[in-house]
Amino acid sequence: MPQPILVPLTLADAASLFDFETENRAFFEATINARPASYYSPEGVAEAIAEACTDADGDLGYQFLLKEEDGRIVARANLSAVKRAHFQSAVLGYRVAQAACGKGYASEAVRQVLGIAFGELGLARIEADVRIDNAASARVLLRNGFVQFGHSRRSFEMKGVWYDRLHFECHAPCAAT
């Protein structure tokens, strides 16, 4: 069975990304804060992609799509808050289509984005945060070599409820000396 492949987000993905986001909107918004309503239109998605491309051109952040062989988007992954001087770090985020949950897509997206981050992007450290009640996401990170380094209390608010977050980090493999 062919592995899904992680590809950079481009304007050519606008229609399929619009479908992915609208089909999974309620699922995503059950656990993360909602995007602005203006995002959920073909124009809103195209504008967000253009902004993502500008961020990538400026080395500020990178967005990727995990696609099946037939081109179907099953997950997204991004590297945001890229810090170069003295840090060489970024923050990882990801989301998986509801119908694709539990099939290893999150782990595969994280595995592939780490390869890009530590390879062609030359980053040295990736951070990720997980709500304390999201054990599946924490397992994805641990499975991909992340280590928990912190726990912040009442640090994420959604719909008037405060949640704890767990903080994880992963470092680029060191070359043997």
Description:
Keywords: Acyltransferase, Transferase. InterPro entries: Acyl_CoA_acyltransferase (IPR016181), GNAT_dom (IPR000182), N-acetyltransferase (IPR051531). One of its GO terms (molecular function) is protein-N-terminal-alanine acetyltransferase activity. Residues 4-169 form the N-acetyltransferase domain. Belongs to the acetyltransferase family. RimJ subfamily. This protein is α+β, with helices and mostly antiparallel strands. It has a domain at 5-125: 3-Layer(aba) Sandwich (Aminopeptidase), CATH 3.40.630.30. The protein contains five helices and seven strands; from the N terminus they run βαααβββαβαββ. It has helices at residues 14-23, 25-29, 42-57, 105-118, 135-143; strands at residues 5-8, 62-67, 73-83, 89-96, 125-131, 147-158, 161-171. A seven-stranded mixed beta sheet has the order 1-2-3-4-5-7-6, sandwiched between helices. Strand 6 (147-158) and strand 7 (161-171) form a beta hairpin. Helix 1 (14-23) crosses helix 3 (42-57). The protein starts with a strand and ends in a 6-residue tail after the last strand. The model has no long low-confidence stretch (mean pLDDT 95).
